[in-house]
Design brief:
Blueprint: H1 2-31, H2 41-60, H3 64-70, H4 73-86, H5 92-95, H6 98-110
Helix pairs in contact: 1-2
């Protein structure tokens, strides 16, 4: 029993650290004035939007059970279809190319 509890706790801590790093990255993208990379105001707003609409709610309701749902066989197909429909790659042209599709598929399986 302690082994399962230890694995679950480790997964939760790693998940929270990943989400916090993602949140900090999005906030840096929003606050960036050209020090790291020249960004348009639209990309800065998109980073802030993603922070408030996706990352912050996930941090607030995070649990290891949600992480287990990511790899559950009953949900993989529907999550894959949703991911491919919403995948944001480097540019629109790349997302419609074979290379972009392969990159998106690789990223989906890497994050599972």
């Amino acid at each position: 029993f302690m082994l399962v509890a230890t694995i679950t706790a480790t997964a939760e801590v790693c998940g929270i650290l990943f989400l916090i790093a993602n949140a900090v990255n999005l906030l840096l993208q929003f606050a960036d004035k050209g020090w790291l990379k020249k960004r348009s105001e639209y990309s800065q707003f998109t980073a802030l939007d993603r922070f408030f609409r996706k990352v912050l709610p996930m941090i607030g309701t995070f649990s290891a059970l949600k992480m287990a749902a990511l790899v559950h066989p009953a949900f993989i197909y529907s999550q894959f279809i949703d991911f491919m429909g919403e995948a944001e790659l480097c540019s629109f042209a790349l997302s419609k190319s074979i290379v972009g599709i392969v990159m998106a598929i690789f990223w989906f399986f890497l994050t599972r």
